[in-house]
Design brief:
496 residues; alpha+beta; four-stranded antiparallel sheet; globular
Length: 496
């Protein structure tokens, strides 16, 4: 009788567990059918802030194949939509508030105690680093014997996706790297070794880094990775803007640009005004923001041109903003699906350029860069993604501070059909005709975009292991130049 009871008990428990799994499965399938099947439901897309054109085209099935964004969207669905509240929102300041509550409730929470008290979970003696020191083993046929078995000497270091970089203009050995999901890392020896500068911060997703002109120990970090076309397409939710005044040793939240923004806040760029560092512009997936008091308060910028020219709203997806390094009154900003705008008063007011949504162009993401060579301060470049196929519409150039733009290159595949996600551009401070464009691989031009040379090849693993220097990991997101040596620059990509 006891045996029967025991069997019955385990049978009931097993059936209960199976029932739970079946219910979860059915609920998930129902949710997927509702969210991805009922693609014409504007209510769902608006509720979860799926408002960029590329995401909507994917949901409607208008884009298919490689580069359609299916996998990034599913990642976003898993990491964001499942966690949103009943209003479809995750309050930006929620994580920071909960982290502060834990710090108050559990003394020592989030600190490295080194065995001297505090939370034992954070005791350094209980942890062993297995991060950037680990090596990736590749299966490469180096000796040509037809075998895929890993030949000797095929181990090399590999890290995660880097979204942003900043270098100290007064000490080029100091760099900061922002990771998509690993926080801020700092080097004081020019990149020879790195250490975390992001301990005890309740969010590790970084979108942008900026050092204050004249005081590089003051750092602003925009949390939340934009994921190409915003959080709804593969990025990570942030906690707003975070600030350090001691070179990254400690951080505080900037409440005025952290509270009140729901639906996931992510940063493309934080830009100081070099003539007046108290003026700061932030390009985010929820609009273009301006502070004139060093971040104490912020204004949501808009543009409503007269006539039929398009403008931008407080929540338009601002993919970039650049302040002219010589004439700081000149600013250019870009917006997904809308186009490019220029300002002649440091960002207070804006006007539409000739690259706008009134044209027949399928405007997607836009990345901007000033020409930094002396004597060419009126010039800038823009790489513009084609929202219909993720290639490039082209490379565009302005010679009048962004008022009008002309096509500089018709090469549409230099970003490798991933311009919605991987896009970077940098001009050479030593040569006004030289520029670099990154996407899947790195390309360079020495004739202002007339022709491009293929500089790196991420599939060239055999070349790398034979001491060739063509290999750079795929999907490049940021390029910055050394402050004094224009032949040296740094690339942040999916491999580190």
């Amino acid at each position: 009788m006891k045996t029967i009871s025991r069997v019955s008990f385990f049978f009931l428990v097993t059936m209960f567990v199976l029932s739970v799994f079946v219910l979860i499965f059915l609920e998930t399938q129902l949710l997927l059918a509702q969210n991805f099947g009922d693609v014409e439901s504007r209510e769902w897309r608006e509720k979860y802030h799926v408002n960029d054109s590329l995401s909507i085209k994917y949901l409607k099935g208008e884009i298919s194949g490689k580069g359609s964004g299916r996998k990034p969207f599913l990642r976003a669905f898993d990491s964001y939509y499942k966690r949103a509240n009943s209003n479809g929102e995750i309050p930006t300041n929620y994580l920071w508030q909960q982290n502060e509550l834990l710090n108050q409730t559990f003394p020592g929470f989030g600190t490295v105690s080194n065995g001297k008290g505090g939370n034992s979970l954070n005791d350094a003696a209980n942890w062993q680093e297995v991060g950037t020191g680990q090596l990736l083993q590749l299966s490469v046929d180096l000796d040509g014997d037809g075998s895929d078995a890993c030949d000797s000497g095929t181990l090399f270091s590999q890290t995660g996706r880097i979204t942003s970089l900043a270098i100290d203009p007064t000490n080029a050995n100091i760099l900061y790297a922002g990771s998509a999901s690993g926080g801020i890392w700092k080097t004081t020896n020019g990149g020879g070794s790195w250490f975390s500068s992001w301990n005890n911060i309740p969010n590790c997703s970084i979108g942008a880094i900026a050092l204050r002109p004249g005081n590089p120990n003051e750092i602003l970090v925009g949390t939340g990775e934009n994921g190409g076309s915003g959080l709804s397409f593969g990025g990570f939710n942030g906690i707003g803007l975070v600030k350090s005044t001691d070179g990254g040793a400690s951080w505080t939240q900037v409440p005025s640009l952290s509270a009140g923004y729901s639906g996931g806040l992510a940063f493309y760029r934080v830009a100081y005004n070099p003539a007046n560092p108290n003026r700061i512009l932030c390009a985010t997936n929820q609009g273009l923001r301006l502070s004139t008091d060093n971040g104490t308060s912020w204004t949501s910028l808009t543009c409503s041109p007269a006539g039929s020219l398009p403008g931008f709203a407080v929540n338009s997806n601002a993919s970039d903003v650049i302040v002219n390094p010589v004439d700081a009154s000149k600013v250019v900003a870009s917006f997904w699906g809308i186009g490019m705008f220029f300002s002649s008063d440091s960002g207070n007011t804006w006007s539409a350029s000739n690259i706008n949504s009134n044209s027949t162009m399928n405007i997607g993401r836009i990345k901007l860069c000033w020409v930094t060579a002396a004597g060419y301060t009126n010039q800038a470049y823009a790489v513009i993604a084609n929202s219909s196929n993720s290639q490039l519409l082209g490379l565009y150039k302005t010679t009048n501070f962004g008022q009008t733009w002309s096509l500089a290159s018709t090469d549409t595949d230099i970003t490798g059909n991933q311009s919605w996600y991987a896009m970077a551009i940098m001009t050479d401070r030593g040569d006004a005709n030289t520029l670099y464009v990154g996407g899947l691989d790195l390309y360079s031009s020495d004739d202002s975009g007339g022709d491009f040379d293929w500089e790196s090849e991420w599939t060239a693993l055999k070349d790398l292991l034979n001491d060739d220097d063509d290999y750079v990991h795929a999907d490049q997101h940021v390029i910055i130049q050394h402050p004094t040596d224009h032949n040296t620059f740094f690339i942040g990509c999916d491999g580190g």
